Amino acid sequence: MNVPVDSLSDLVVERVGFGIFVLDRDMNVLMWNRFMQDHSGLTPDQVVGRSLYTHFPELPRVWLSRKIESVFQLGSFAFSSWEQRPYLFKFDHDRPITGGVDFMQQDCTFMPLMREREVVAVCVTISDVTHVSIVQREREEAVAKLQEYADRDGLTGIANRRFFEARLRDEYTRWQRYGGDMSVLLFDLDHFKKINDQFGHGVGDTVLRVMAQRVAEVVRAQDTFGRFGGEEFALLLPCTPLEDAMRVAEKIRCTIADTPVEVQGTCVPVTASVGGASARVGVPSYDVLINEADAALYSAKRQGRNRSVAFV
């Protein structure tokens, strides 16, 4: 049995798994395939011969009209990815609602239909790429999570030493270029080994977590608070002179010392010694800044602990 080519073409257009519709230069619909009918709920009889905007007034009229007009003028294909514009039509999708998308994500192709070297209409295809978009979003979220974990201390959840030093290096470079103020505080918990020896490492870990949480709640959003290792912590204070940094140091010291940590019915008293240093002419690198803050910290310990000392 011989089937006319035109009939086969019409059948393919009707049955393909993506949307196809054709527009003239005035945005009137000339063709509307089964995919478009199934997802819009509108038959070809309802749509063909009318402006596309009659039934879809929510379409991005300016953007879409420019896209169609460019195809008429240039006679070349145009494309729009879901990453640039998530969807053209607000069609429902069949993916789980946990995917985080409200409507079908769509890639759109705009193809010139030529007759005697003149564009007489534009064929638009709509591809459902919802699954691809969900997978890509999940991948991006997973990568972001991994990056976040890579930057965080596993015990306390604050910045780890690697991330802290990277931020300090960047901030020090900014200070070298633009000047201003920048300070660093180093502090550690006094006699922490005794806490571990007397109460056990589990209690010691709880003390570290509680202390980190308390300090994190009193520092500014623009500051970087990190664990330097063991019971030692660091705080980067951009745009902060040493005098103001030492006021922050006292606030941190009091935050730690004022309330013992209660663990398993036991109150564990905790204090901290703090050392501070600030960037200034003659400090050749951020490493030197850390060393100066560390020297001030050990000076605080030599003076009896539970105090804050500035590097002079």
From TrEMBL:
GO terms for biological process: cell adhesion involved in single-species biofilm formation; negative regulation of bacterial-type flagellum-dependent cell motility; regulation of DNA-templated transcription. Pfam families: GGDEF, PAS. It catalyses: 2 GTP = 3',3'-c-di-GMP + 2 diphosphate. Coiled coil: none annotated. Its EC number is 2.7.7.65. It is an enzyme of class 2 (transferase). CDD domains: GGDEF (cd01949), PAS (cd00130). GO terms for molecular function: diguanylate cyclase activity. SUPFAM superfamilies: Nucleotide cyclase, PYP-like sensor domain (PAS domain). SMART domains: GGDEF (SM00267), PAS (SM00091). This is diguanylate cyclase. GO terms for cellular component: plasma membrane. It comes from the Bacteria. Residues 180-312 form the GGDEF domain. NCBIfam families: GGDEF, sensory_box. Residues 12-56 form the PAS domain.
